[in-house]
Design brief:
The protein is an all-alpha fold. It has a domain of 113 residues: Helix Hairpins (Orthogonal Bundle). It is 64% helix and 1% strand. The protein has a two-stranded antiparallel ribbon.
Length: 435
């Protein structure tokens, strides 16, 4: 107990997600969870992928796991998506009790929120938004899957709706969403769920309050998230369409749908695909890697560096080019602590990615671009692959497992849990920009 009471929020966060992985691996290793005998290292890999909402899998989910095993995976990426301690905190608040200071500290670490947000009301909204959005997504997908002749349409709809909103990218279809590449209803529904999950609960919170009151002013964080998310989409989609030779034979409408879906799934770090990723051209793969590295937004279900950290770095560059001593973005001054956090996050992220690519290159005999893509996808908790995940050796699986875990918890959070004294970080931390 003395050990637990002495832990910092960063350390609680790391150990919390680690406990999910251990418990999940135990459940997925039970005979009742498996159709065929799946190795423990593969269960560990797939559980970490679920908890980190990545979607990479060394075996076929539908062929290797029973319905019980698939439910275990769904529960894991649902918990991984809404965040460690969010569900239990919601239950505590629903019973009229107050959250402890320790729990508040952990939640504050996990959800990087603007200073005006109150964690208690935010947790309530996370739970409510999740239930409503996933219910609507399940309903739409159920109707479309049933019309398309999919077996067990209700279960398939629920599984993919939760997978999409948590941006986990797990699919019970052997080829992900390739069979629905020209189905606008399914692609738009899945894409909308992924975007709502990736932009984060900060934006959903703001949107809800803006609808309730016209006088409510949307936070600066939400504006940054929406602008950068839209910018990535509208820049990358036409570039992907023009750079991908395989789309030449597709009609314009289908080509745009495929391009939009693949850019969406990379930038939201969802991991679904409507075309074989291994067959894409190098230029298209480069665009997807860039989108995966930038990633989603804070307090959302996606991974990556985060759009707000990227915006802080853009602000630094523009201020230097203009010869200014203060850093601004969209006319807002960004506090030094936020800038330091953003630079540290980006630096550590790139360092971990480089280390991941290097170690994978040492352990695996695969094409370099495939290893870079796999590492970027794992660390960004994306789940896209050029087809090498199932071919990885045990060492490669361990490396990718570590990358997925680091990607979900955050390389900076892991570093803080190991080295931070708990005395300096947080001073002068109030800001209307979450990083």
């Amino acid at each position: 107990m003395r050990f637990v009471s002495g832990l910092k929020p960063f350390q609680f966060l790391v150990l919390g997600f680690l406990s999910y992985v251990i418990i999940g691996t135990a459940f997925l290793s039970l005979p009742i969870s498996q159709v065929t005998d799946v190795k423990v290292i593969d269960n560990l890999f797939n559980v970490t992928s679920a908890v980190s909402t990545t979607g990479l899998s060394t075996v076929s989910v539908s062929d290797s796991y029973t319905l019980f095993g698939q439910i275990v995976i769904l529960v894991l990426f649902q918990l991984g998506g809404i965040g460690y301690m969010t569900l239990t905190s919601f239950i505590i608040l629903a019973r009229g009790r107050q959250l402890s200071n320790v729990r508040n500290g952990i939640l504050g670490t996990e959800f990087s929120l603007p200073s005006e947000f109150k964690i208690h009301s935010f947790i309530f909204q996370v739970a409510v938004f999740t239930l409503i959005i996933e219910f609507i997504g399940t309903l739409i997908l159920f109707l479309e899957f049933r019309a398309s002749g999919v077996e067990s349409p209700l279960w398939m709809a629920l599984f993919h709706a939760v997978s999409a909103f948590t941006t986990s990218g797990f699919s019970t279809f052997s080829n992900s969403m390739e069979s629905f590449k020209d189905n606008w209803v399914i692609c738009v529904t899945v894409g909308s769920l992924c975007y709502m999950g990736s932009i984060g609960f900060i934006v959903l919170h703001d949107a809800f309050l803006a609808v309730k009151s016209r006088a409510y002013r949307v936070t600066f964080t939400s504006k940054v998230i929406l602008v950068l998310t839209a910018l990535i989409f509208f820049v990358c989609v036409p570039l992907f369409y023009l750079s991908e030779p395989s789309l030449r034979n597709a009609g314009f409408s289908e080509g745009i749908l495929i391009s939009s879906f693949q850019v969406m799934t990379a930038s939201t770090t969802a991991g679904f695909n409507t075309v074989p990723i291994g067959n894409l051209a190098p230029a298209s793969l480069t665009l997807l890697i860039i989108a995966m590295v930038i990633g989603a937004s804070p307090s959302g279900t996606g991974g990556g560096i985060k759009t707000t950290s990227v915006s802080s770095c853009i602000g630094i560059v523009m201020s230097i080019l203009r010869g200014r001593s203060t850093v601004t973005f969209f006319g807002h001054s960004i506090p030094d602590i936020r800038l330091m956090t953003a630079v540290a996050s980006v630096s550590i992220y790139i360092g971990v990615l480089a280390a991941g690519v290097f170690t994978l290159s040492m352990a695996e005999e695969q094409e370099y671009i495939k290893l870079v893509f796999e590492a970027a996808s794992a660390l960004g908790t994306v789940g896209l692959s050029m087809g090498i995940t199932g071919e990885l050796g045990n060492t490669g699986k361990i490396i990718v497992t570590l990358l997925m875990f680091l990607g979900r918890v955050g390389p900076l959070t892991v570093g803080l849990s190991l080295f931070h004294s708990g005395k300096e970080l947080g001073k002068n931390k109030k800001s209307d920009l979450a990083v």
